[in-house]
Each structure stands twice: as structure tokens, then as C-alpha cells.
Amino acid sequence: MQSGAPALRSVLTVKGQSCEVSLEPERAALCWRELRPRRGRERSRAAELCLTRVLHRARALTGGLKHQFPPGGHVVPVSEIISVEDADAGETYHHGSNWQHMCKPHAFTVHYVQRMKKHRWSCKAVTFWCSDEVLCCQWLKALGDLLDRQTCRPKHLLVYINPYGGKKKGKQIYERKVAPLFSLAGISTEVIVTEFANHARDNLYEVNLDKYDGILCVGGDGMFSEVLHGLIGRVQKDTAIDPNDPDVVLSPCDIRIGIIPAGSTDCVCFATVGVNDPVTSALHIILGDSQVLDVCAVHRKKRFLKYTVSNLGYGFYGDILKSSEKNRWLGPARYDFAGFKMFLSRNWYEGTVSFQPAKWAAGSPRDLTRCRSGCDVCRQSIAQLEEHQRAQARGLVRNEQEDDWKTIKGKFMAVNAANMCCACPRSPKGLSPAAHLADGAADLILVHKCSRINFLRHLIRHTNKKDQFDFPFVEVYRVKNFQFTPKHLEEDDDVDAESTDMAIPGKKNFAQICADHPSCGCNQVNSVWNCDGETLDQTAIEMRVHSQLIKLFARGIEDSKLEDVGCPSRV
Ligand SMILES: CCCCCCCCCCCCC/C=C/[C@@H](O)[C@H](COP(=O)(O)O)NC(=O)CCCCC
Ligand SMILES: Nc1ncnc2c1ncn2[C@@H]1O[C@H](COP(=O)(O)OP(=O)(O)O)[C@@H](O)[C@H]1O
Ligand SMILES: [Ca+2]
Questions:
Q1: pTM as predicted
Q2: Which residues does the annotation mark as catalytic?
Q3: Ligand 2 test: best mutation among 164, 198, 306, most atoms within 8 Å of CB?
Q4: Where in the numbering of this chain does the DAGKc domain appear (predicted)?
């Protein structure tokens, strides 16, 4: 069916009921309603309200309904249809009170996305029975033509599965929940079950990326980090960009990354989809969603260390990560155990933080806006950043290389740079609830040394509606970059002292001695950086945000108002 083609309208049978079914290319929605509602099914006021919501959603998704659907209707935007196929020959259908068997069915089945509660999606199917074969073919062709126009959908994917992440169920999750949906949607895959850490990263330097429409990782944030490093590294290599240069403009990666959550925290998935559910993520991938994402690059002087997209955390979150690795056998519970231990330890670390505020950012870390699908704050921030960069290039504003640095010396329980809200099941609003996925900035959170009870109050606020930054010992800034130097390296003129020390076998700095002897009772001098769940050995670092460097198969968390909360599209 071409655009401008007339709407297709027929009376078809659904579950033994005659329905008026229509497909209008302009509206790009498949709609159906029962012609004669079943006896006894009276519409309640609640159902009326639900219908209004469904119609609102359809209007929002299709750019306005020209035609109001009468009560009892269903609306499925074509962009949310997973596939359309001939109905099975052996399928039975209900006609009046008798079950009948069709020998040669003139029927087609539409598989589509249904929104459940809390951002969860599921795959639903509805079969339409036609009076004859010609009509059935006409419907199959019209729907097929509209689906062919969904050009953003992937056809061939490269999948990496970490069999050891989370509860070690990555392979099972993929095979049982995800692969059947991909085959339903006609997506072909090449699957690599990793055999060692960094297998996926190294493999991405070798594969022919042109063959694929996307790369998937099945695992947690650590596994995502591997794929992120492989992909960004590969693209920089192909475009002759030196990642060791902290000031370089990195080449963006056009191929999208998909995450099937099968790890312990899965914060990148949660903060970009709204839920950690393999089926929901698979459906976002099938529909070809796209969400750009800022990436932070971490350097030590002229040496590239790591990329991070969620949290770069020193102190509390670094210590949790380091301590939890020893208890990996506990699965995701290792973090709760380590968290409790680190809370009791009340470690703090002395150092200096310097940063440049993201002056052009449209939002601020303590405002009440939330990064949601199609976020206006991200769009406006990037527009202002680009305007600022153009003005700088024309010499209209000062070059900020040396200016506007703010420096804070102190004793810190935690230093976190949240490049996104970092929501996860442990903290559904996240480390920095107002942080944005693609605004070119990160939220720098400094938690100064405080009493155990105050730190607990701060932590608890990550799990309720109160503001976790509203304490005199917490500071938060929206930044474009920052540097951290631990106290013991502050006076060191040798910029590479830390890395040199580490390179000489047998020579250890004080921090390492204390870490090796936890029973010595002193407060450790150094923590480690938790970089999307991977540890960094270096403590003195610089971080810079690269705006919108990568793309995910996601759309950002949808506004709950668009969800049919507790209300399927049937009313
Ligand atoms: C008294 C209740 C206190 C609850 C406080 C909860 C605060 C939670 C904030 C969580 C931020 C998470 C930032 C993301 C971290 C992940 O990248 C990382 C690795 O994930 P994965 O590879 O999937 O395992 N996870 C962690 O560092 C664990 C943090 C756990 C904090 C308790
Ligand atoms: N086959 C493998 N064997 C061991 N480690 C692996 C393998 N594949 C990936 N890894 C590593 O496992 C770590 C944790 O993976 P992840 O999927 O994030 O699980 P979790 O969320 O439980 O930490 C990552 O650092 C990743 O590099
Ligand atoms: Ca950001």
C-alpha cells in the first residue's frame, strides 16, 4: 500500500466476532472494533477512561486521528507491529458456542507490542479471519508494504552473550526469550558466546561491521562496557583518530548497540528503557528504536584509560565494586553484601576535584525535569552547545581551555560522575534523577566526609522521593569535564608517578599496602574508580563528556502518561 493509497476497510472475524477493521496509511495504524459488542459486556466508566487514553496514545503516535473510533476499539500503530503472517492451517476459531476447525484458513495473524505496567512490553497476537483468499492476500500485502517502510528496523545482528554475568543465565535468557522473537520478526543473527573477559571487545576490532545493522550484548553493565570499548575503539581506528589525545573529537559510532539485560545491575538498560526485562529490550530492538547517548572518556594525562556511560564513581561505589568481585559467586547479591560492609567501613578519601561547569546545559541537577523519550532538555542543551562551539570558533567568546575551572579540596566519602540518571532496580530514580542521556554533560556529585547516620540518610533518599542532594555535606554540579587527584599525588610533579609506580614490580604505594592489609585499621589512602562496573587502577584521572557519541536500540524512558497503565488496548 503506497502513501496516499486509500484506506483498507473490511469486516473480518476476530475470535468469532465480526469486526470492522481498517488500515489507513496516512494514520499508519491498524484499528478494529466489534460491530456488535458481546452481550453482557457493558462498558464501565473505567473502560471509557482507558479508551480515551488509548486514543490519546494513538493520536500522539500517529500525529492525530482523523476518525474517532467508536467504543470497543483497538488501535495498533504500524510502527508497533512486530510481524504479520498467514495464520496456521490448523488454527481453530470460536464461532458462537461451537469450536470449528478451518481446513484452509483465509486468515492472517498480526503480532504487535502491548504496553504493560512500568515500561514493560509484551508481544501479543491477534488473528483476523477473512471471507475469501483474495481479501486475505490484500490485507497481507497492505500490512507487508507498510512494514517494509519501517526502514529503521534491523535485519541482521551480531550478538555477544556473556554466560557468566549476573545469575549466569545469559544464554538461557537469549535462547528462550529473545531468539524466538527475533525469528518471528525475521531478524537473522550471528551469536558469539564469549569464552573469556574482553572476548567481545577484541572481536569487534576484527569483524566486518558492514554486515550488521546492530550489535547486541547479553549481560550486565560490564558486558556493555566491553562492547562499548570494542565499538568506539574500532571506529576511532578506522577513522585514524588517536584516543590517547584527551582533546580529540571522537568519531561517532553509527551502528546501534542493543542490550539484553542479564547482568547484576543493568543500569544502562534500566535508565534507557525503564525496566530490566529481556522481552521488552528485544521488542525495542525489533522496532528499530534509536537513542543517542553521551560517552565520557577517562584519561590520565596523555593516556586513554576507559570510556563510561553510566557512573564513574570513586570512594563508596569503587570500594563496593572492588570488594564485591571477591564474592562473585553470590551473583547480584554480592553488591548488597559489599554495600553493607562499605557502609560500616565509612571510608573517606582526601583529594582535589576540579571541573568546568556545562554552562550551556538547559537543565540543572536539582531541577524536577526527567530525561524522557524525545527529551527537550537534551535537544536544547545540544543546540546551545553547538551554538557555543560555533561562537568559539569565530572568536566571539573566550576559549574556555584555561578559564572557568572550579576547584574543591576535601575529604570525600564518594565522588560520582553520573552521565545518566543511573536508575536501576535498587534505586528506581538513580544516582542523579535529573541527569540526561544525551545533553553533552554529566552530574558531578561530591559527598563529603560525614557521620554514618548522615551517609545512611543520603543513601536512603536514593530509594524514595526525597532529594538526595539536600544535605550540607553533598554538592552536585552539571559539568562538561572534571579532574581528580588524590592527596598523595597532589604535590607530585611527575605526572605519571602513579602509573610508573605500578609498572615497577615490588614497588608499592601506600594505598596498595593498605588494601593488601585490610586488618591494619587505617583509613585507606586510595579507593578505586568504578567505571560502569569495571575497576580502574589509576586514581588520578581526567574525564570529559563526548556528546551523543553512540546510539542504542532504545527510545529513552517513555512518559508514563503514554502507557496504558493497567489497561490493555482492548477496552
Ligand atoms: C539503604 C539503602 C541504600 C540503597 C542505595 C542504593 C543506591 C544505588 C545507586 C546505584 C547506582 C548504580 C550505578 C551503576 C553501576 C553499575 O554500572 C555497576 C556494574 O553493573 P553490572 O555490571 O550490571 O553488575 N554496578 C555497581 O557498581 C553496583 C552498585 C551497587 C550499589 C549498592
Ligand atoms: N566468558 C567470560 N568469562 C569471564 N568473564 C567474562 C566473559 N565474558 C565477559 N566477561 C566479563 O564479565 C564481567 C561482568 O560481566 P557482566 O555481564 O557485566 O555481569 P555482572 O553484571 O554480573 O557484573 C565483564 O567484565 C566482562 O568483561
Ligand atoms: Ca549526559
A1: 0.88
A2: 221
A3: 164
A4: 152-302
